[in-house]
Amino acid sequence: ELNLSFQDLGDLYQVENFKRILQKLIRVEKLWLVDNSLTDLSAIRLPRCRELNVNKNHFTSFKQLPKIPQIQHLSIAENNIMTLSGISDFRHTPLESLILKRNPCEFQERYRQLVFSSLPNLKMLDGIPKLPEDCSPPDIRVFFKMCTIV
């Protein structure tokens, strides 16, 4: 377990040194990187990491997260993830719990259904267990309400 949160990485050289350290963490299983102003860790591989918390950073996409093939619990709340694009990269991981709270993608229509359909192994999203309506196929029918004005 390792907590490297709140590192105040304001300068580019600090970020580069921090990434160099992260590349050496091939045995870490639980890693907290909260509030570090991180934007891209896609070059990092954490082969044994089962739990990763990168809340309060500046990620804008799932593609910017490190390679985490064994991930079970991922928390990326309070970033700036706009869309669910790239979420399917986690489809073949043992991911059971995902926290995406306070990201713009949370306001996407059918958000929960889209996440659960992309991640079949997922059991919990934003602290709420998978519900029957999360598994239902998206409703493609569009209803219009008519109003007659006399």
From TrEMBL:
Record's keyword annotation contains Repeat: yes
Gene3D superfamilies (alphabetical): Ribonuclease Inhibitor (3.80.10.10)
Record-linked SUPFAM superfamilies: L domain-like
Keyword terms: Leucine-rich repeat, Repeat
Matching InterPro entries: LRR_dom_sf
UniProt key word Repeat: yes
Coiled-coil zones: none
Protein name: TILB protein
Species name: Anhinga rufa (African darter)
Gene transcribed to yield this protein: Lrcc6
